Amino acid sequence: MKVLVADDDAGVRLVARAVVEDLGHECLEATSGDEAWQMYTQHQPHVLVLDRIMPPGPDGLQLCEAIRRAEQDTHDYTYLI
Predict the structure, then answer these.
(1) Which pLDDT score is estimated for 77?
(2) Least confident span in 21-25, 36-40, 68-72
(3) Are 55 and 8 in contact (CB under 8 A)?
(4) Which pairing describes strands 26-30 and 47-50: parallel, antiparallel, or unpaired?
């Protein structure tokens, strides 16, 4: 499973990557909302772990809204937890 971790804090990404990989999944990392959107559209990860605040660009909630809008016309679904 592909997991996208988006956070502007390198330490948070390091810990998240370790957990994701220890669970046997592929981890993709983004350092900003803009980078996370680009990686989402390019790689179509199964799970997203998004920071609430990621300057500059969209934050985690704005990314969720954009992903839901993009998926309205497809059979894919984004679940937020």
Answers:
(1) 55
(2) 68-72
(3) yes
(4) unpaired
